[in-house]
Amino acid sequence: MDHPADHPAPPLPTAEHPAPTLSPALRRELRARAHAVRPVVQIGSDGLSPGVIGETERALAAHELIKVRILDEARLLRDEMLQALCAATGAAAVQHIGKTLVLWRPKPELESADTRPKRRAAGPRVPGSRRSAADTPKRRGGSLDTRSRARQAADRRRKTPRGGSSQGR
Question: Among 10, 32, 116, 163, which residue is least crowded by beta carbons within 10 Å?
Answer without folding.
Answer: 163
